[in-house]
Amino acid sequence: xxxxxxxxxxxxxxxxxxxxxxxxxxxxxxxxxxxxxxxxxxxxxxxxxxxxxxxxxxxxxxxxxxxxxxxxxxxxxxxxxxxxxxxxxxxxxxxxxxxxxxxxxxxxxxxxxxxxxxxxxxxxxxxxxxxxxxxxxxxxxxxxxxxxxxxxxxxxxxxxxxxxxxxxxxxxxxxxxxxxxxx
Length: 183
Prior knowledge:
The protein is mostly helical. It has a single domain, classed as Up-down Bundle (de novo design (two linked rop proteins)), CATH 1.20.1440.80. It contains seven helices and three strands; from the N terminus they run ααβααααββα. Strands 1-3-2 form a three-stranded antiparallel β-sheet. The radius of gyration is 22 Å and the shape is elongated. The two termini are 19 Å apart.
């Protein structure tokens, strides 16, 4: 359930809110001097990958392990009750959840490296490669506060997803050990 729910919430955030916040970012990104080639060059330096593309890749990547398990279960006609009865199914499922945790952690780390925790108002761009008179130029980042809030929301979703995955493994382990009654 949590995979479907958080996958849907991620898609909603990406599709609706992500487009609203990041949709035309490259068009509104402006540098001094305000020339098209400088703006594009600096924007590509500022955003080597757009957040929407990164989060879409993250979503697909972290949903794949669970999708493999559910595809396997559907092909073998495994009922929900059988998942906790046979050790192979449990191991396969727990492995898929562990893989998801690892992929979420890697995505979290990459997101920090690419975007940080805060979007600043001004981005200092090195335009030395364009053979300009000045090597550093200032660029204005549009709607920086909204983007910071969106980053924090995406970090929060990642943390919640990891916590739910750990809780799922804990729940399965407790059921297998007999601490939680399934009746």
